[in-house]
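Bench log. Compound arrived from synthesis this morning; before running ITC I wanted a structural hypothesis for how magnesium ion sits in the protein. Inputs:
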Amino acid sequence: MTVKSAELIKTVFAKGEYPPPMKREIAFAGRSNVGKSSLLNSLFGRRLAKTSSTPGKTRSINFYVVNGEIFFVDLPGYGYAKASMSEREKWQRLITDYFESREGLSLVVLLVDIRHPLQPADKQMLDWVTYYAIPYVLVLTKADKLSKSRQQQSKKSISEEVSVWGRPPVFSVSAENRQGIEELLKTLLQ
Ligand code: GTP
Ligand code: MG
């Protein structure tokens, strides 16, 4: 399974302005700066999504068409400490509307930093995906920052924390050295 083509077709800043659904739709959600856009670039095999070391880079919902038939959707990051209350509320309304509008949403890829325990905003996202009964997988990002044994420890403890919401498949990945990227891609494209 490979990405033969990937193209940004729509950037959405206001609720309701979504493109018509495609065969499948996979949304990438996670805290600001966790590495959503970097992961998408690794999956695409090219740099289409803008990334930044400053949190809050992606403010819009970005729809990428993969292989002409699947949407990969880059969601704005949540839990950005410096965001104002009105920005947070705007984000919350936009993402809630997105989940309520996209009946064809096939899968949510929830990203968390492999180095940290679940944050309150991650738990809220888990509440949402389980409330809307959307299948999800957990992706632990920035695996290159830990040794293999620390990765295993962290995967175990985060999986335990998540078990309150179910037992999703868990992947450890790195956009830096491509660890776990092909395995994740196989799951997403099958
Ligand atoms: P927002 O758009 O603000 O929500 O952030 P994002 O989740 O899209 O994060 P982004 O991909 O822009 O990455 C944030 C920072 O983390 C950048 O400096 C990336 O270079 C870095 N980063 C992302 N993935 C990895 C990784 O696998 N390993 C390492 N070491 N750094 C990473
Ligand atoms: Mg981003």
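What the model suggests: The helical segments are 36-44, 85-101, 120-131, 148-162, 181-189. The longest helix spans residues 85-101.
ITC booked for Thursday regardless.
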